[in-house]
Structure formats: C-alpha cells, structure tokens
From TrEMBL, chain A:
ABC transporter domain boundaries: 17-264
Name of the protein: Oligopeptide/dipeptide ABC transporter ATP-binding protein
Membrane topology: Peripheral membrane protein
One GO biological process term: transmembrane transport
Annotated source species: Phyllobacterium trifolii
From TrEMBL, chain B:
The species this protein was found in: Phyllobacterium trifolii
Membrane topology of this protein: Multi-pass membrane protein
SUPFAM superfamilies, per the entry: MetI-like (SSF161098)
Name this polypeptide is given: Peptide/nickel transport system permease protein
One cellular component (GO) term of this entry: plasma membrane
Family matches, as Pfam families: BPD_transp_1
Domain of life, per lineage: Bacteria
Domain ABC transmembrane type-1: 81-270
Length: 334, 283
C-alpha cells in the first residue's frame, strides 16, 4: 500500500491490524458464552515522516483503540504494527520500553492523564529520566525549556496538577509527550474535553510543535472542522475499519463513501440558509454493535445506496486513479 | 475564602490534637519509671479494691484506686502503655506493609496473582483468628515479637482488601496508561502511581487496626499465649477488671479510657495526615 513515490520508511504502520476483546460470561440459561468485540477489524494505515494524519469517526468506531494499538498500548490480535520499520507486534513490555521514548501519546482528558500525586516538574522529567536521556540537573533545565515552549511559566514546575486549568493541564500533557523528542505522537481527541476558547490555542500549539520538532502525528478527532485545519491526510473510520482515506481537500470536498458524505452533511453550517436546507437526520439508526459479526459491507444497514453486492462481499479499501484518495465502497469499485 | 481557611485551620487544630495525644502517650510510656507513683506490680493486700481518689472512700495514695490485689491502677496504666503502644503500633505497621504490598500485587497484576492472594485473604477471614493465634503462639512461643507477628497476620487482610479495591480503580486511570506510554517501569509505576494514589484507605485502616491490635494483644494475654499477663498492659487490665465490674468499676474503666483516648489520637492524626498527603486539599 506504500505510495511508490514516497520511498522513505513509514514512521508508523498498521498492516491488516485487528484488535479484539473477548469476554466470557454466562447467559440467562447458565451457558458460557464468548462475546468478541472487534474494536479494530482489519486496518491498513501508513503514516510517513512529518505527516499529520487525522483519524475521524463516531464514538465507538475503534479510533482510540487503533491509536493505542499503533503504540502497542493494546494487544494486537491479528496483523502487525510497525514502528520506523521494526515490527512491534509480539514484543513484550520490557522490550518495548526503550522504544517508547520515540513514540508518545496525548490523552483526551487532561484531568485524568496526569498523576495527581506528582509535581508537574517530576511528571515532565520522567520521560527523560526513565530513559536515561538526561541527568537530574539537565532534566530540570529541559523541563523549564519545554514549559516555556508550551506557553507556561517555568516556575510552576513545583505545583501539582490540581492547581491547573484543563487547558493548562493539556499543555503539560503535550509537553510530557514531546520532551523526549519522540518521532511519533498519537493525540487521542486532545481538544474535545476543553473549552472552545482553549481548543484553538491547543491546536496552534500542535502546529507550532510540529514545525519545531518535525513531529509526525496521528490526530484522533470527531471534529471535522478541526481536522481540515491541521491534517495532511484524513482517514475515516467506521466500525473498526477505515472506509475512506485521502488529503483533506479530496475527502472533504469530494467525499466518496456514503458514510463520509453523511458525516460531512451532519456538520452544522454557519450560513442559516444552507443550515435550513441541511437534511435532518442525515444518518438513520445506530452503527451495529462491534460485538456482532457483519457479513458484506458494514455500513450497508444505514446506507442509502445499498446494493445486492453489498450484502455479499466486504469492499476493500482501494485507491482511485490519483493514487492517494482511497475508498472502501462498491459504488466506486470498477 | 474565610470558610476555606477556617476549615483548613480547624483541620490543623484537629491534627495537632491528635499529635498531642500520641506524643503524650509515647512520653508516658518512655518515662514510666519517673512518672509512676509506685512500681506497677507492688501488691498491697491491705488496700485491695480501693476506689479512686475523687470517689467516696477513695484515698489520695491511689489516685485511680487499686485492683483486687491492691496494685495501684495509675501506676499500672503508666507502665501498661509501654506494651500496649509498642504492640499496637508495631503490629499495625507490619500489617500495613504486608497487607498493602499484597493488595497492590493482587489488584495490579490480577489473574493468578490476585486469585492466590485473595484465596489467602478469604481463608484467613474464614478461619477463626483466635485458633490461629493459639496455634502460632504455641509453636513460636510467646513474647513480644511473636505477638507482634501474630497480630500483623491478623490485620494484614484488612489492608489487603481495601488496597486491592483501591488499586482496581487507580490502575485504570489514564495516568497509569500514560506512565506506560512514557516507558515507566513496573516498580516505579507501582510506587509512584499506584501506591501513591492508594494511601488514603491505608491510613484509615491503620488507625482502626492499631486499636484492634491493642485489644487483641489483651485477649491473647488473657488466654495465656501472648505476653506474660503479669506484665501490665491496658488490655490485660481490662480483662482483669471485667469480673469486678459490679464491685470496682475503676479497674476496667481507666484502661478502657486510655485505649479509647489513644485510638482517638491515632484517628485524628490519621485523618489529618490523609488530608495533608492529598495534594488536592488545602496546603
């Protein structure tokens, strides 16, 4: 799937990746039943150096799980996860630990992602110290430097997280993710828990850091306007599978998959005339539970264009003539 | 703002009161020979069951009265603090260390580790403790250290259960996953992330386990398997006074008050310590 033009080694790569959770419980008759949740159900994704890839989709579609699986914070059920060319799939936590300095994560909720019992200076120094990248004195200087970069006063290093607002905490969490100069950062809805007024600042910070540290990142979001603003490439996820992928311009201005079209149609328009003519509701029904096995196309139950072939075969993600815009839909497969 | 600082000061005062009680009790234990009016085991058969000085028929010679052998209650209380405090603190601390460690391992690692530790906890809770204590002390022989170990074995399950429950809620927090994402190793994660966020229930259990240990030590002495009952301790005095409760209430009442006061001090101190250790509360 690697673009023939770009021969650089991908930073992060998922190959036919599946992440499943099994839970065994007794049903009402006392029989043991196994439920398998297919959170990520066959994803191919390649993230190249310097790219900001956005992953969009509704809640529960598996985008967070995919993000964590790329960092091997999830167990891989099938397929493979690679980082800078090396296979992480079966590695134990002990072997992964030294690799982790190169790949970091920013969590959605800044109120739960910082240890309340540690001063933020300690939290920020931790990536440097556990990987032996700096002495304690050097770490202190690096912490002051990174606090300045993310727009906080270095004097606050001695405080605990409770003393900060949500936006400030997210700056701290971002600082922790970049202080060891990682190659790859997964940001899991890093602004959706924040006030609107703070969201823009945090986005600007991401842009700034991307330039400053030549970061490659996966930005998980359900806010399409945000994605358009920051992403170099967009992947649309539905029920554990990527259904459309391409540049923000091609995906947003020329959405091919009916699901992407529905998502875009659901974005409220600031223009009242256009807003009134927006179809409502745009998408009927709920996505099927990831615990049920789907045959054929997973979107067909909610799709306005469902055809007989959709019930028989599962459409693969296939690239169009331009070689970048890909879609998993029989409407566009020849 | 004033409400906030008032609450803070009241909390402070309560903590200082707790510390004051504990310091006083420890001072009494350490300086017992200097404070006690008479030796604790001095028997005066002419002055049996003398009531306290402030009660009719009491004598100024025996401020808290005497017991059935004419021994001075005040002197016995002062000397008794030595065994009671030492046993209570040592057993509660040892139990806390063992129980917290087991609770953290069970809660964090889950699976077989959890099954094994929880099995031990359940077995011990199901097994009558007195029987176990008699068996262990019978094999180990009595004495201070044996009693402390046995009492720690009695209390560690309390810690293990609450710590395990706390760890189950702490370990799914994002900050623990964040630690893993950063590359923090397991020992450091357990110490700085899991343990550091599970201390509140440990302190609460420690304050009531201290009281439990003081009382159980008395019961063991009473059964003749613990510390030699002729060495005064508050628990032993409580037991001695029980049969005279109708005739001479003071024998059991004063050691009971001493235990209650000490436990109160430990509780006040524990509450204050828990709040102080929580960075979210006022500093």
């Amino acid at each position: 799937m690697i673009d023939p033009v770009d021969t650089r080694l991908p930073v992060s790569e998922a190959v036919a990746l599946k992440v499943q959770y099994s839970s065994r419980r007794r049903n009402c008759l006392g029989r043991l039943t196994t439920t398998t949740i297919r959170a990520v159900d066959g994803v191919d994704l390649t993230i190249r150096p310097g790219e900001a890839v956005a992953l969009v989709g509704e809640s529960g579609c598996g985008k967070s799980t995919l993000g964590r699986a790329l960092l091997r914070l999830e167990r891989v059920s099938e397929g493979a996860v690679r980082f800078a060319g090396s296979d992480l799939t079966g590695l134990s936590e002990a072997i992964l630990r030294p690799i982790r300095r190169n790949m970091q994560m920013v969590f959605q909720d800044p109120f739960s992602s910082l240890n309340p019992r540690m001063q933020i200076g300690e939290t920020l120094a931790e990536p440097l110290l556990v990987h032996g990248l700096a002495s304690k004195a050097e770490a202190r200087a690096r912490v002051a430097e990174i606090l300045q970069i993310v727009g906080l006063d270095p004097a606050v290093a001695g405080r605990h997280p409770h003393a900060f607002s949500g936006g400030q905490r997210q700056r701290i969490a971002i600082a922790r993710a970049v202080i060891a100069r990682p190659k790859f950062v997964v940001a899991d809805e890093p602004i959706s828990a924040l006030d609107i007024s703070v969201q823009a600042q945090i986005l600007d910070l991401f842009e700034d850091l991307k330039e400053r540290f030549a970061l490659t990142y996966l930005f998980i979001s359900h806010d399409l306007a945000v994605v358009r603003h920051i992403a170099d490439r967009v992947a649309v996820m539905y029920l554990g599978r990527i259904v459309e992928e391409g540049s923000p311009e091609s995906v947003f201005d020329n959405p091919l998959h009916p699901y992407t079209q529905a998502l875009l149609a659901a974005v409220p328009s600031p223009d009242p005339v256009r807003e009134r003519s927006r179809p409502n509701p745009v998408l009927r029904g709920e996505p099927p539970s990831p615990a049920t096995a789907v045959t054929g196309c997973r979107f067909r139950g909610r799709c306005a264009h469902a055809m007989p072939v959709c019930a028989m075969a599962d459409p693969a993600l296939a690239r169009g003539a331009d070689g970048t815009h890909a879609v998993a839909c029989f409407l566009h497969h020849q | 703002m004033t409400g906030f600082s008032n609450r803070f000061l009241i909390g402070h005062a309560v903590g200082i009161a707790g510390v004051a009680i504990i310091v006083a009790a420890v001072a009494i234990a350490v300086f017992a020979p200097l404070i006690a009016p008479v030796p604790a085991s001095q028997i005066d058969l002419h002055a049996r069951l003398v009531p306290p000085a402030f009660v009719e028929g009491g004598s100024a010679k025996h401020f808290f009265g005497t017991d059935n052998l004419g021994r001075d209650i005040l002197a016995r209380l002062i000397y008794g603090s030595r065994i009671s405090l030492a046993v209570g603190t040592a057993a509660a601390l040892l139990g806390a260390v063992i129980g917290s460690l087991m609770g953290i391992l069970a809660g964090y690692f889950g699976g077989r580790v959890d099954a094994a530790i929880s099995w031990f906890v359940d077995v011990q809770l199901a097994f009558p403790f007195t029987l176990l204590a008699i068996f262990l002390l019978g094999t180990l022989g009595g004495g201070f250290y044996a009693v402390v170990i046995v009492l720690a074995l009695a209390t560690w399950v309390n810690y293990a259960r609450v710590v395990r429950a706390q760890v189950l809620t702490v370990k799914v927090q994002d900050y623990v996953l964040a630690a893993r994402a950063v590359g923090v190793g397991t020992p450091r994660t357990l110490w700085r992330y899991i343990f550091a966020n599970s201390t509140a229930p440990i302190i609460v259990v420690a304050s009531f386990s201290t009281a439990q240990a003081i009382l159980t030590q008395a019961a063991l002495s009473f059964l003749g398997v613990g510390i030699d009952p002729s060495i005064p301790s508050w628990g032993a005095m409580l037991n001695d006074g029980r049969e005279y409760l109708q005739k001479a209430w003071w024998i059991a009442t004063f050691p009971g008050l001493a235990i209650a006061l000490t436990v109160l001090g430990v509780n006040l101190f524990g509450d204050w310590l828990r709040d102080r250790l929580d960075p979210r509360s006022a500093r």
